[in-house]
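User: Show me a protein chain along with its predicted structure.
Assistant: Here is one chain, sequence first, then structure tokens.
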Amino acid sequence: MPSDEPTTLPLYRQIGDLLLREIDAGRLIDGQRLDPERELAARLGTSVGTLRKALSFLAEKGLLDRRQGSGNYVRTVKRRDNAYAFFRIELIAGGGEPTAEIISVNRLKKPSNAPAFGASKEAHRIRRVRRLDGVVAVLEEIWLDGAQAKTLDRQSLRDSLYTTYRDQLGLWIARAEDRVWFEPAPPWAPPEFGCKRGEMCGFVERVSWSQTGARVEWSLSWFDAKVARYVQRLK
């Protein structure tokens, strides 16, 4: 279902972006035929007319082949603007529309336990609560090298930080390396997070590289294994 969060995007774009995330995550694969339009519209809680506008939006991006009398077929292409191409946490039942709530944004000295990344001795630390279909699933602590920006405007940070980096800083995250294990929930975990402070939960450490090949970001994510999983699809 499209998000109920306030947005400036029209409904057909929200639905189009939702389907884009399904394609980026590999839940819709190349050549797959989508459900009939009336069934898909009903499942997404929208009208057939709005759905058709969303499908046209995807077709214009080259991600959908609309065949008269046959149906709509997925076409996967590698895109530089995959906002959620690196997002790997899903609800146990699968999928889940990601949204984020910022807890804090600070420019700080890089932690002593951080791997080497970027040229600055400082980094922007962003702490967030991530929801999937409105369910609190992940805590995120993202460290962006201070040389990438003097300041970060909290109000301008989007749910997809990679989109913010691209549009505001001219920075593309080209690749990332994840390491997955278990760690205690951090001391700053809010009450709504399913793992209590100090309780073991799923954990992902990520290092990310920019389009120039430089390490620019280090992030830590704690996820509630009672509601979500880390999923990596191989193609």
